[in-house]
Amino acid sequence: MATLLRSKLSNVATSVSNKSQAKVSGMFARMGFQAATDEEAVGFAHCDDLDMEHRQGLQMDILKSEGGEEGAETPLEGDIHYQRDGTGPLPPSASKEAGVCSELSGQGKPKITAWEAGWNVTNAIQGMFVLGLPYAILHGGYLGLFLIIFAAVVCCYTGKILIACLYEENEDGEIVRVRDSYVDIANACCAPRFPTLGGRVVNVAQIIELVMTCILYVVVSGNLMYNSFPNLPVSQKSWSIIATAVLLPCAFLKNLKAVSKFSLLCTLAHFVINILVIAYCLSRARDWAWDKVKFYIDVKKFPISIGIIVFSYTSQIFLPSLEGNMQNPKEFHCMMNWTHIAACILKGLFALVAYLTWADETKEVITDNLPSTIRAVVNIFLVAKALLSYPLPFFAAVEVLERSLFQDGNRAFFPNCYGGDGRLKSWGLTLRCALVVFTLLMAIYVPHFALLMGLTGSLTGAGLCFLLPSLFHLKLLWRKLLWHHVFFDVAIFVIGGICSVSGFIHSLEGLIEAFRTNAED
Hints:
The protein is mostly helical. It is 68% helix and 1% strand.
């Protein structure tokens, strides 16, 4: 009897321990994924649902395996890891709920094709922020065009090596996936001394980039509306306040399913707008100012252009979850190649054609250069897209903050912001509203699209796309790397670091000057 009681207590303790491990593991994986929904990852919310359902199925399988026969062997943690072919050991389903979870975690789990994955990457790197690229050519000339190509090559390469860090070789010599997210990779690099330091650094970078993206949406909304209706007695700051009032309901969001559908339509509309801008520029081909494009650099403003270009290519943060949801992960490299080649060609042509059309009169947001007859229509569509895209990075930032500060078990810094019934507490809702107001205040005091975009690209964009992937690749796989891979990683880290520091300093100086000017006014 004592032996039986001791066995039951041991099983209960093991179950509680594994539940806690599963919850923490799932939380970190989801944090790494949710931050993927950055500024233009529309449609990827669907992949988020699939990923979360799959993880819930895996956690249910772990718990069910403990409720089986006492003599049954508990599967090892490595056996329960994310298996891309769905052939991992599955315990027998003893209930209807377990059966549902088994279907989600096994071969019945829906996957996305390489074309669907490419669509998500394309949304991320060819969104509305390409409207600032002609301004980068203004201060960089042909070197700016080269940088657009160089950034595409480097971001494609770092995306591939980041995915390589998810895999390791097992005892049988097979390459298996042992990590699920950017955060997992960062934690593995800092283990065993600081097992959570890397993840916290990545989370901070995610939050900064997501919040800055929200600020940029408010800035661009105010800027576009002000330049669309210059005769109205409404300032750019007032337009930003109106836009924020429209965005305030984002604080009540529980999911992004409905928002992602509208955002997808707005993305399609944005591609149409890009075509219209290019068509207008082509209609003025006879007046193109080829002599204005030179091999020169505006030493003071070109570093800001570097940040603008880098920020337009940011997609690394959600690539691990995207690759994990692909039907055939072997097609990931090919998908990265054609998406970045297409982005490079389209961005280069768009930036060059737009700059040739307006030359030295090129503005921070290129649609402001359009004639007043069509500018208002184009800008209204862009404002609608910005407002409907705002909830994506906002919701992702909120989830990372809530899971890091309020829902991290005993390691949480503050009490849980959700009640026992799962509803958000009033003070939690107040904090969400405060985050919306914070984006407004930043947009009001620093209403400079190019400076904010350059600062974000130099700080978090270069870090997440250049510095961290190359550093993690060297740290985790340095024994298996060929000499040219080591050379590429070191070169990218050094060049990325120099560009990041230079762009950050110049962008910060410009922002401080703009902040002082606005404060005096």
